[in-house]
Amino acid sequence: MKRIIFTLVAAFTLVAAVNAQKYAFIDSEYIMENIPAFTAAQQQLNQLSSQYQKELESMHAEIEQMYKDFQAESVLLSDDMKRKREDVIITKEKAYKKLQRKYFGPKGDLFTKRQGLVKPIQDDIFNAVQEIANDGSYAVIFDKAGSTTLFYTNPRYDLSDEVLKKLGYK
Fold first, then answer.
1. Rounded CA separation 13/7 (Å)
2. Which of 8, 52, 64, 160 is the Cys-Cys partner for 103 at CB 3.0 to 4.6 Å?
3. Which distant-in-sequence residues (6+ apart) come within 8 Å of 101 by Cβ?
4. CB atoms closer than 10 angstroms to residue 102
5. Would you list the domain boundaries of the chain?
């Protein structure tokens, strides 16, 4: 019985050694930080986001002021005037929320702009990693910057600089 178990373990070890796969990792954050086009795109997106945020904050402050004025004057207004003022405030709040979705929503302006600026860079990185994986016969290349947690990584297997070279940087 021990011989059979020993033989099976030896056979599995031999098969595993023969079929050994190559693994490596990259750091996509490091790669993107070293691509000037990505840094410029990030700055442009930050400026656009800041511009949108300021516009929304201004609109929100205006709505807040309208509401405060309404509360202060509501005692003096007739029911008809109250309803009209409430309708104006509600319409303004709806416009605010609509603009907020237009700028920052899942398919909003900022998302679309990001897709236009950053996605081509990410596609280039992916293509470079794929070429390196095919050329080097790697079974798996992990991204240590992503959600995958790599407890320890040996720098010897870091292909980040190779990806940058493949893309023509550094």
1. 10
2. 52
3. 108
4. 13
5. 22-166
SS3 95: helix
Are 61 and 138 spatial neighbours (Cβ–Cβ below 8 Å)? no
Residue written as token pair 């410029």? 40
Structure-block tokens of residue 31: 């790669």
Distance of CA 127 to the CA centre of its chain: 19
Instruction: Please provide residue 25's backbone torsions phi and psi, each rounded to the nearest 5 degrees.
Output: -145, 160
Q: What is the pLDDT along the chain (170 residues), one digit of tens a residue?
A: 556 654 555 555 544 544 567 788 888 889 999 999 999 999 999 999 999 999 999 999 999 999 999 898 888 889 999 999 999 999 999 999 999 999 999 999 999 999 999 999 999 998 888 888 888 887 788 888 866 655 456 677 788 888 888 888 87
Whether the CB-CB separation of 170 and 51 falls below 8 Å is answered with no
Q: Are 87 and 80 in contact (CB under 8 A)?
A: no
